[in-house]
């Protein structure tokens, strides 16, 4: 089961932001 604070969409968005920050 997925916790109530781990949304696939949110995770993908966060990953994108992290990638942009790690540029």
Task: Describe the protein.
This protein is mainly alpha-helical and 23 residues long. It has one helix at residues 8-21. The longest helix has 14 residues, at 8-21.
Supply the number of helical segments.
Answer: 1
Strand content: under 5%
Categorize the overall geometry: rod-shaped
Low-confidence stretches: none
How many strands appear in the DSSP assignment?
0
Gap between N and C termini = 33 Å
What characterizes the major β-sheet? none
Helix proportion of residues, in percent? Answer: 55-70%
Short description:
This protein is mostly helical and 23 residues long. It contains one helix and no strands.
List keywords for this structure.
single chain, 23 residues, mainly alpha, 1 helix, 0% strand, rod-shaped
SSE inventory with pairings:
Blueprint: H1 8-21
């Amino acid at each position: 089961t997925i916790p109530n604070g781990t949304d696939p969409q949110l995770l993908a968005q966060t990953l994108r932001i992290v990638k942009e920050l790690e540029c």
